[in-house]
Amino acid sequence: MDWCYFVDPGLDVTRADRVEIGEDGIGGFAVVVTLTPADGVDYAAWTTGSAGHQIAISVEGRVLIAPDLLEPLSGDALHIIGLTETDAQTLLRQLWE
């Protein structure tokens, strides 16, 4: 099924310090995106007003995933949880393309 998203202006992150796959603590997998210190501060401020909403993670205008933002980011890493191992590997590859 195809989806169409209408998105508000958000925050551009052009470089991550690290992107890796881990376990999500609820029986699935997660993609963990560790932001640069500067982006981490900006992203934490932006997520304060976006908690409880769906966000779009896109590369070159293409939405890769649109998870619900459960709570504001309090550190320097974004955890995208609830993925299968295959979906996590695919997302990891797409984020690095």
The succession of helices and strands, N to C, reads EEHEEEH
Q: What's the structural domain tally?
A: 1
Oligomer: single chain
Give the CATH architecture: 2-Layer Sandwich
Low-confidence sequence ranges: none
**What percentage of amino acids are in beta strands?**
25-35%
Major sheet attributes: 3 strands, antiparallel
Helix count from the secondary structure assignment? 2
CATH top level is Alpha Beta
- Distance linking N and C termini: 23 Å
Cα Rg: 13 Å
Quantity of strands, as a count: 5
In CATH, the topology is named: Gyrase A, domain 2
Task: Choose one word for the global shape.
Answer: globular
- Please state the average pLDDT score: 87
Helix content: 25-40%
SSE class: alpha+beta
What does this protein structure show overall?
The mean pLDDT is 87. The chain has one domain (16-96): Gyrase A, domain 2, CATH 3.30.1360.200. The protein has helices at 37-50, 85-96; strands at residues 16-23, 29-35, 57-59, 62-65, 77-83. It is built from 2 helices and 5 strands; from the N terminus they run E-E-H-E-E-E-H. It is an alpha+beta fold. It has a 3-stranded antiparallel β-sheet with strand order 1-2-5.
Keywords:
27% helix; globular; 2 helices; 3-stranded antiparallel sheet; two-stranded antiparallel sheet; single chain; Gyrase A, domain 2; alpha+beta; 97 residues
List the helices and strands and how they pair.
Blueprint: E1 16-23, E2 29-35, H1 37-50, E3 57-59, E4 62-65, E5 77-83, H2 85-96
Antiparallel strand pairs: 1-2, 2-5, 3-4
